[in-house]
Write a structure and sequence with these properties.
Elements (H helix, E strand, L loop, with lengths): L2 E13 L5 E7 L3 E7 L18 E7 L7 E10 L2 H4 L2 H17 L7 H13 L4 H15 L22 E5 L4 E3 L9 E4 H9 L8 H19 L6 H5 L3
Length: 240
């Protein structure tokens, strides 16, 4: 069995025994990998790190051919994000990123752009935390194939009239919807929020009212797609 090498972000971990640890990693090369680090909790082992959450490491692992946990055989620390430890709201945002990666991605389904976006937000927090978190969510939606339709009705393609000051948005429909196609889960968002959603980037400066609209809209979308409410979402929504 050939050993695989990858660069990984630690997104989840549990102790398996007094000396070993089960770790979920989101890798740039392979997507999500779940592995057993035998001896990973020992002070002296092949692992330079204890697979702390939100650390980046270069790993070597043996991939199981019939399911089950992969076997992690080496790990070398590449990067930590010390700013997260000095700002609680930033740490919560980092945990939220890890939760989305752990719960929504499939094993061995690589998304290099999503991996890069995750590292970018972790490196840049706490600056522009709200817009950076929402920009990451948009990358997450795009990479998973759920980019919202924002230029016309997601159901019938009717364009958004220039004169309207607000539109209806439906996570179930996959974007904005016209009055004829309005779904049960729809919510109204202002034209300003719609335009901001189209152009949102990590460095976007948002008016408080628009930021709150976008946060509520993306929260609803994330919960719909996951089929549950992420544990860390309440902390993200509490960001002023």
């Amino acid at each position: 069995m050939a050993a695989e090498k990858a660069t990984a972000l630690v997104v989840r971990g549990t102790d398996w025994s007094e000396t070993s640890r089960i770790t979920t990693l989101f890798t740039r090369e392979f997507g999500k990998v779940r592995g057993l680090a035998k001896g990973g909790r020992r002070l002296r082992s092949n692992f330079e790190i204890a697979f702390d959450l939100l650390t980046v490491c270069d790993i070597v692992f043996l991939r199981k051919s019939h399911g089950g946990l992969d076997l992690l055989i080496e790990a070398r620390l590449v990067e930590k994000f010390p700013a997260l430890r000095n700002d609680l709201t930033s740490l919560y945002a980092g945990y939220y990123v890890a939760e989305l990666l752990a719960d929504s991605t499939a094993d061995y389904d690589p998304h290099p752009a999503l991996f890069d976006a995750a590292l970018a937000i972790l490196r840049e927090l706490p600056e522009n935390q709200a817009s950076r978190t929402m920009a990451f969510e948009l990358v997450w939606l795009r990479e998973l194939g759920y980019s919202p339709r924002l230029n016309g009705c997601a159901s019938c393609n009717t364009p958004v009239p220039e004169a309207v000051t607000r539109v209806q948005y439906s996570p179930a429909a996959g974007g904005i919807v016209c009055s004829s196609c309005a779904a049960g889960d729809r919510r109204w968002i202002s034209r300003a929020a719609l335009e901001s959603l189209k152009t949102l980037s990590a460095g976007s400066a948002l008016e408080p009212a628009v930021r709150r609209e976008l946060r509520a809209t993306l929260s609803q979308t994330v919960c719909y797609l996951l089929g549950k409410r992420p544990r860390m979402l309440s902390y993200i929504e509490a960001d002023p």
